[in-house]
Amino acid sequence: MSVLQKNKNITPYDKYKNKNRNKIISGTVEAVILVVLAVALFRALFVFQEYKPYDKNDKNIVTGEDNGFIAISYLAVDRNGTPAMIGTKRLEEHLKALYDNGYVTITQEDIKNYYNNKTSLPNKSLFLMFEDGRRDTAIFAQKIMEKYNNMGTILSYADKFDNQDSKFLSPKDLLNLEASSFWELGTNGYRLTYINVFDRYNHYLGELSSLEYTALRRYLGRNYNQYLMDFIRDENQIPKESYDEMNSRIRRDYDLMDEVYTREVGKLPAAYVLMHSNTGSYADNEKVRNLNQECITRLFAMNFNREGNSYNKENDIYDLTRMQPQAYWYPNHLLMRIYDDTGAQIKFEDGDLNRKKQWETISGAAEYRDCVIALTSVSQGNGLLRLKKSKDYKNIKVSVTLTGNKLGSQAVYLQADDSLKKYVSVKVRNNFLIIEENGKGLINLDLNEFDGTEFNSEDEIKQEALTAEYKTYHNGKKIFKEYSNMEPQEKPVEESVKTVEEDGGKYIPELQINEAGNRKVEITLKDNYLTVMLDNKTAVKNLSLSRKEAGYVYLESAWGEYGYSQRNIADDVYDGVFKDLVIKDAYSDAVLYDNRLRGWDKILSKTKDGWNKLINWFINTL
After folding, report:
1. Residue 217 per-residue DSSP state
2. Any idea what the CATH number is for the domain that residue 441 is in?
3. Is the pTM of this model over 0.85?
């Protein structure tokens, strides 16, 4: 009987039964999925345990040696992560790496006893902080802290309590966190406000709230200060307030801090993080410095006065220092910084040991995870790997995607000798493609030009800055003398604004330390000719080389003396990230090395990514 004849025998009742059966099946599947998602969501957000303090009598933990302690402070936590907020996956990697290295979290009371009573701390002590008092930080960090039995201090600003901004923790939230046993309370101060602000064109902006600062950040340089760090000054850097006025203003901030916390949470926190001195002496100006010191020592039990170095031992309890790990740091980046700060014995993260066996680590630390080799440099130096069985590689094709940040150097060395004195190298460094042979530069290609990036002129960006600055000062507040007679709705306009074509000069923004990179690089070295493709476009074609010998393949990541970074003033470690590295014979196309995910590994990775995206969707749409 044909299929057509069979279908003729199906009655309306059969169709009704089939339709209902399909509905039941699909409904059951949907219900199961929703239940699984609900359980996963609950586990992702609500895991309740109790913090267990370390055993002070355990000689394996408290050895009696005075190794001080490290202090690590995260700005904020987000489930997925942003350039500024660390994601939960990366935060867990960080805290697991510290746990695996034997670090034990300590409390504010432990620090007080260490400095005031000379009480011993654990051999590897960690004081963990989370700044800015964001609600998402508490939600997403809690589960991870419970997993590794971490105690953390949540820092907040007192003025956020009155604003009732849902992004920030309320007094009730803070008390609930403290009651959970995994959290202590600290404070960043009363407010986050900036004074004596100039933009990068040396226009005086005066005072900015945190929201105004965020709106204008792209137009600012480094010429500004925090509310408690100086006299309020005019455009000529002359104080606009007397000593008594400065004294009254700063004391008022500390009094408000004390008043608000006492009223809302029942006490002023013992731990204070002064924003943003980084001077080692509470402020640059002597009179302001003395006043801050007096207020801080009167109100608080401890103060973290500086950022950059994680290690505390010889310093004073009111001059503690902390490190702020960034969202893009791989675990070995964090560990390398701690190693550099403390000199402690560190076990770096290796990842997949089978993949690791194929490489020899010359310097730095490498983690092999799925299709990625994350190569972390030493402080102010490089990370270097050599592919063990590549000594006789001569005519080869290399394909790799570089996802390390733009600031820094990621390099592939070909036909290299044992001492790396003779080689051909292809580097992406500070957004330039650089090709060298035996130390001699052959190509130095600006990748902005290669990409055809269009830039506005310096004049146009300056005009854009003036307009944005004027708009920021709404309600008739004027910032520039030349615009003092303008109506609030008017925009400041320069008399002459030249475009790039009119010789206005290109404005090329400085690379930021956290600016992500993503370059697909394909290198073909055939006989003594080199071709390089970037993102499927030819960057260099048949470059003639003198070197013809076979040699090793090396990978390198390198810190490049980027200079001062307002975001992270002491970060001199770099993560080179080499994804989907494949090496083939240039003539036969035979695969010599392949670090891509394949088979079940690839399927499982994609399934895991899809599941996480689904959980994220549910969380974001709640």
Report:
1. G
2. 2.60.120.560
3. yes
